[in-house]
Amino acid sequence: MRAALIVLLAAAPASAESVRDTLAHQPDLVDARTVVPDLQVELRYATRDNFLHEAVYGDLDVCYLHKDAAALLARAAAALARVRSDLHLHVYDCARPAWVQRKMWAIVEGTPQKAYVADPRKGSLHGTGCAVDITLADGAGAPLDMGSPHDDFTRRAEPRAELELLDKGELTGDEEANRLLLREVMLRGGFRVLANEWWHFDCATRADAARKYRMIP
Predict the structure, then answer these.
(1) CATH number, domain containing residue 57
(2) Number of domains in the chain
(3) What percent of the chain has pLDDT over 90?
């Protein structure tokens, strides 16, 4: 299995420019800032500040999304502007080419982190441009406190555990309020919530995405 993945990775583009080219040349993807001009973009996988500790996106600095997801994000941004005009949507991850998914899988294979990366044979909704990792931030780009960082895979990051965390004092009322505001505007936009990651939102169910959207090669 590892040998097969090494072969796949060897055939994949290796440069940061290739990541941008892969995404920029997909006809169904758009730069999300063309529809959400004040969107703040901080792609964590273009840095070492992520659980992989590798910059697998190179220096990619554009949030590409499927045009359907970008339209929903514009609706979410409008919903946020109506209730908190001082805040902005702040993205950590957007569309992801399949070859990058394979690279991520190869990094975590055989480690406990394997559980947090989608098997490239099945794919991730990030691989269709239909998913976004996102938070809220102020005008200076400082993210609101959500009670855990992005890519925290402990129970503190799980929306389904929030009532328990509040009861135990492991999540504050302000942190919960920030999460609720993020979910409110994303749901108003038309996104779906992921039960175990407060930052992750999908523009369709996995079944619908499989029918409607193709994986980015």
Answers:
(1) 3.30.1380.10
(2) 1
(3) 85
